Amino acid sequence: MTKSKEGKPENFEKSLEALEELVRELEAGDKGLDESLELFEKGVLLSKDLAKRLEDAKTKVEALSKEGGRLVKKPFPDAEG
Asked: Which residue ranges make up each domain of the chain?
């Protein structure tokens, strides 16, 4: 999980903003190779962390969906559907 400068876990939105900022910096194209690779590596780590957090949230939603008073796993609706 991504941590803030104080060592506390960042919330999802802050982590997403950090990833978007990294993308903007890379798209600007004004960084050298070493700095670009460093930013890319940070971006990959952030995106993996965000994907895991989304999957965890999806699992919680599925687990908490109830049908007829009993716990029933319901599939998460597709974004396309």
From this structure: 12-71
